[in-house]
Amino acid sequence: MTRRVHEVMTGNPVTVEKLTSLAEAARVMRDADIGDVLVVDDGRLHGILTDRDLVIRAVADNRDPAETTVQAVCTPAPVTVGPDDYVDQAADLMRRHALRRLPVQSEDGELVGVVTLGDLTVERDPGSTLAAISAAEPDT
Questions:
Q1: Environment class of residue 136 by beta-carbon count within 10 Å: exposed (0-12), middle (13-18) or buried (19+)?
Q2: Nearest CA to 6 among 95, 112, 83, 105?
Q3: Which of 73, 68, 27, 72 has the alpha carbon at shortest distance from 54?
Q4: Which residues are within 8 A (CB) of 57 and not within 5 positions of it... i.e. 6 or more apart?
Q5: SS3 for 111?
Q6: What Å distances lie between residue 53 and 5, 25, 96, 125, CA to CA?
Q7: 67: how many CB neighbours lie within 10 A of its CB?
Q8: Are 27 and 52 in contact (CB under 8 A)?
Q9: Longest dimension (CA), the chain
Q10: What is the pLDDT of residues 20-63, one digit of tens each?
Q11: What φ, ψ does residue 136 adopt, rounded to 5°?
Q12: Between these two residues, 35 and 2, which has the higher pLDDT value?
């Protein structure tokens, strides 16, 4: 039987408001040991900010991380998936849009999680190298 996204996703997504500085968002990511935060505006999904966005769209462009807000460099209106969608649907969305992460939203727009390429790999190919890396404890 094919599993649903809510069975493999990471719940309780970490969010920052769209006017949060890049420096603060980076600290949030560091402290939570994650590679992305969901950007919200009044509790509604506005975008997604990844560690790659910080490097490519901010540091490489000499933006001041204390003065630049996350909304200036995040990916706006990200592709999302529902918690009751099938894992195969999430994988297909990632493939078609070349994504590594998908915010998970309920029908009423509530953010309930994030599903990552690593989550799907652990589910679909648990013996793979990527699954082993994704399942490993973080370095300290």
A1: exposed
A2: 83
A3: 73
A4: 63, 73
A5: strand
A6: 25, 11, 20, 28
A7: 10
A8: no
A9: 49
A10: 999 999 999 999 999 999 999 998 999 999 999 999 999 999 99
A11: -70, 150
A12: 35
State the Cα angle at 24 between 23 and 25, rounded to 5°. 90
Question: DSSP letter string over 89-103?
Answer: HHHHHHHHHT-SEEE
Closest CA to 31 of 14, 6, 55, 50: 14
- What's the rounded Cα separation, in Å, for the pair 32 and 30? 6
Specify the amino acid at residue 98.
A
- Residue 109 has a CB neighbour count (10 Å cut-off) of 10
All domains of the chain in start order, with CATH: 5-135 (3.10.580.10)
pLDDT per residue over 59-103, tens digit each? 999 999 999 999 999 999 999 999 999 999 999 999 999 999 999
* 135 has a pLDDT exceeding 90: no
State the DSSP string of 42-91. Answer: TTEEEEEEEHHHIIIIIGGGT--TTT-BGGGTSEES---B-TTSBHHHHH
